[in-house]
Amino acid sequence: xxxxxxxxxxxxxxxxxxxxxxxxxxxxxxxxxxxxxxxxxxxxxxxxxxxxxxxxxxxxxxxxxxxxxxxxxxxxxxxxxxxxxxxxxxxxxxxxxxxxxxxxxxxxxxxxxxxxxxxxxxxxxxxxxxxxxxxxxxxxxxxxxxxxxxxxxxxxxxxxxxxxxxxxxxxxxxxxxxxxxxxxxxxxxxxxxxxxxxxxxxxxxxxxxxxxxxxxxxxxxxxxxxxxxxxxxxxxxxxxxxxxxxxxxxxxxxxxxxxxxxxxxxxxxxxxxxxxxxxxxxxxxxxxxxxxxxxxxxxxxxxxxxxxxxxxxxxxxxxxxxxxxxxxxxxxxxxxxxxxxxxxxxxxxxxxxxxxxxxxxxxxxxxxxxxxxxxxxxxxxxxxxxxxxxxxxxxxxxxxxxxxxxxxxxxxxxxxxxxxxxxxxxxxxxxxxxxxxxxxxxxxxxxxxxxxxx
Length: 454
Prior knowledge:
Elements: H1 3-19, H2 21-28, E1 32-33, E2 41-46, H3 49-70, E3 76-81, E4 90-91, H4 134-143, E5 154-157, H5 164-178, E6 184-188, H6 189-201, H7 205-213, E7 217-221, H8 230-245, E8 249-254, H9 266-272, E9 276-279, H10 285-297, H11 306-315, H12 320-337, H13 343-349, H14 351-356, H15 363-373, H16 378-381, H17 388-404, H18 409-415, H19 421-437, H20 439-453
Parallel strand pairs: 2-3, 5-8, 5-9, 6-7, 7-8
Antiparallel strand pairs: 1-2, 3-4
Helix pairs in contact: 1-2, 1-3, 4-5, 6-7, 8-9, 10-11, 10-12, 15-17, 15-20, 17-19, 18-19, 19-20
């Protein structure tokens, strides 16, 4: 039995334990190790393109880490579809093996540029733009242009599944197209930490530092995962300083603004705030519908009625990733069963998803939750009192009402003591601004969202 095959037995055991029996049996158990896999390049296969895409989206990094922990020489993990053996596999490591990316001959001793494992689906032309993400999109496009960057670093923040990672892959692809010989590195903060710890144990931190600081474009995703990791933050800080000092491009993403990153050193958040901080807000109905239309462009054989698209866009509101995943599932099930997609088929196929999104939070529930959190009486939120200790919680409650309910602005205003709709608009905008600047406000909103949506 090969080293890769022995490692795969261990990895499967870890996945079954961590994922649980139901998820493991449905998605991970069908994975097979392709015969002939060596200990540097692990090749895995699944029986359908739908299952392949799901595992790529949810377990690519985890599979790489599991194999790498057992076999340090592993450099890539590819996840393929058995029925599509002629198609090129998508290599889902953080970085692909080093290859020359340009015909130019490097100078002696110079590092050969490496091409990151960019997802070909994540390009600028596939990113649907509206007011909620326009600043982030324009900033990403500008940073990908050749020539001296207008700003750096670019800090992207939003909730999960709103498009941060898409934009980072798009930046990498566009920049490599503009500068084919560039050295581009895209990695998660978790990968940064893993590689740094591995370098420490191997007593080879010099190579780790040299590799990252030689990048012309360095992109690090999900910065929140290094919170509380002092040694990793120390190295991250010096890496950021070096990249910025040499005028190179730096892109960082996280689930909140720099000042809202609990457990991340102030000197790091201050440094990252020097460039451009751009947020991506939750998608509204129009954007969700447009995303589905754009997704269907890449599915020429799929026939999805407009009423089904309206159902998905209306009911699946959490994030873009869940929305696209639901459409993928719907189309895949139709192809596997040979049935046509209509409303009945959509409800039968996505019943669990639609039921999960069906619960509607009421304004009364919001008022009770906010009152309890801030130790007020519910009547205070509808009173005429303007003291900050009451006014700020009232604004937060209005913000949550706008975000979590389908009530109109005038209806929300009436539920808060007969206030005008313009008061609600002001409250929503004010809380959006404060969430970017005030860690305490952002933390309170996040706590209340978890409580109300849970």
